Amino acid sequence: MFRSGPHCAVLPVLALAAAVLGIPAPAHGIPQTPGHRLVSRYDGAPARPDPLPGQGPPRHPYMAPNGRSGMHADAGGSASYPWSGPLGRDPKVTGRRIAALGGECATTTFDRAGRLVAVCGTFAGFRVKLLDPRSLATLAEYRLPQRSSTVAALTTLDLSKIFKDTSGGAYFYLDDRDRAVLADSRQHILRLAHVQGPDGRWRFRVDDDWDLTGLVPHDCVRWTELRPKGGCDPVTSVMPDWQGRIWWVTRQGRVGTVDPRTSVIRAVRLAGEEIQNSFSVAADGVSIVTDHALYSFTAAPDGTPRVVWRQTYDRGSGTKPGSVNQGSGTTPDLFGDPARTGGGYVAITDNADDRMNVLVYRRGADVPADRRLVCRVPVFRAGASTTDNSLVTWGDSLVVENNYGYENVGSLLFGKTVTGGVTRIDVRPDGSGCDTVWESGIRSPSTVPKLSAGNGLLYFYEKDRNPLGIDAWYLTAVDFRTGARRWRRLTGTGPGYDNNWAPITLGPDGTAYVGVFNGIVAVRDGS
User: Fold this and answer.
1) Side-chain-facing half-sphere of 101: CA atoms under 13 Å
2) Of 21, 92, 273, 342, which one's alpha carbon is 20 to 30 angstroms from that of 522?
3) How far apart are CA 363 and CA 431, in angstroms?
4) What does the alpha-carbon distance between residue 409 and residue 15 come to, in Å, rounded to a whole number?
5) Taking every pair of C-alpha atoms in the chain, what is the biggest distance, in angstroms?
6) Rounded to whole angstroms, how far apart are CA atoms 170 and 126?
7) Are strands 235-240 and 246-250 parallel, antiparallel or unpaired?
8) What's the distance, CA 491 to chain centroid?
9) Does position 472 have pLDDT exceeding 50, yes or no?
């Protein structure tokens, strides 16, 4: 999310595309570039719902119900939803522009009434938004402080500092009381409730504020201090464990906890390692991936994080185009029946030079080191294989998307696209290895794909090569069982519709939401 390669010309290009080439949009809508009438609006045919057998991950006791709670849909990171997404029946598209430049809604969750609680990024700073699920109108807003990476990028004209920064609140979760829990750029963890006043207006209220700066370097670049002398370690993500502690990780390898009852804060440092992804949680512990290794953690009685096991992987020799750093680009996925699989599985990808591998491990604490690896499966084309997004898991199946070639919102202008590819891999029932079930040529440059267990469809955000230079973006539905594309719907044309690492999110009413560079779009079946 909000990531980029070293393209310092992105802002001028986008300004030109939006201001000069942009076609006027409806009020509050996202403008399209010329050519939107020259590309297909809809391909394929409506799908019939074919629910998947089995059950999703267990509900986390301190998070909103599965499908409502965070970027990866649940605590285990499955990216699956129990309800149906759109089936492609005369699908309608609506969009909401959040800012003139930027405005991308990176993470979307849902409160009990189905309202959207989202974090949207602008160049002035992140905004926590309460949005109406139909009109996408803002009902309430809470402004987070500007990230130091934005200040550094604007003062050095190096936009990669913005787009390679995953900190500041983009990874947040909705708790069991519908409060947004996040870490801001001051290295504070906030719990934000949204409340409605007697006049009917909504507002955000800070219920808790925990200051991590006693344990985290915080002398960061600010407009009032452009050359700080101390260190700065941004907080990447927060998640709760099964006991209610709030875990947090920083870019420079700090792993910590906050006890909400006592406000006691503990932390350890993984020296020399970087954490740019979120992490996942199950009843047996916390799974965190750095740019060197996969870890399983639990907490000591006083809350100090304790390493249960550590597994290194092939991190390659450098950062690939389509990756934020030299390491795994995935949030760990926790899946499989613990009683049947020896404690359950955890899956990531590596960063091997030739072909990236999907890695599946047994996550039980007592698994011998020589039996921890279940399989290593190479995916996609040699020399063009990487992902910086979470896997999708259901049952013993995994789905992985190829992001090789996407670096930022300027990467695919003028009809360009990526190498592409999507692969489904299944762990064998006896745990003896893994098998490739299907491969698809779908080109989904940078989205966090999602699965509807309620209808059996996977959702991607697709962009094909266009000889006329038209940048057309599509919500695409793929059959989970076969890998066949069932249908796709044009959301819009131009850089404003590039999702730029933001996820697809399936709402409980069957709507698919996509964070895009200028805001958010919604795709829902017609009547």
Assistant:
1) 12
2) 21
3) 13
4) 12
5) 63
6) 8
7) antiparallel
8) 20
9) yes
